[in-house]
């Protein structure tokens, strides 16, 4: 069972290459902020196992402006047919460091 589950719009953040993310809603962001010191491996990054549809993946949540950003890898987007702007549901389980 996931530690948290929420739905969010796929957004893009442009760096050297475009990256696709889901941004945690306020309630989930507050919970993650409360437990962050116990589970981060540095810089506020939180290791998680995620699930979107039938696709499971590992990643780390990025703290940013009071929320956490969930990277959605290209392989996950391709497997689930996810496009920029789609609203998807993600389940996240915190991985012990």
Automatic annotation (TrEMBL):
Q: Which SUPFAM superfamilies is this protein grouped with?
A: AF2212/PG0164-like (SSF141694)
In its UniProt entry, what is this protein called? DUF1905 domain-containing protein
Q: Which Pfam families match?
A: DUF1905 (PF08922)
């Amino acid at each position: 069972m996931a530690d948290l589950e929420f739905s969010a719009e796929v957004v893009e953040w442009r760096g050297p290459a475009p990256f696709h993310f889901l941004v945690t809603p306020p309630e989930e962001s507050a919970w993650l902020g409360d437990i962050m010191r116990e589970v981060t491996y540095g810089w506020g990054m939180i290791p998680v196992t995620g699930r979107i549809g039938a696709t499971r993946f590992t990643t780390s949540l990025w703290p940013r402006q009071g929320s956490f950003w969930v990277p959605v890898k290209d392989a996950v987007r391709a497997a689930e047919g996810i496009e920029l702007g789609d609203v998807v549901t993600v389940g996240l389980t915190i991985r012990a460091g």
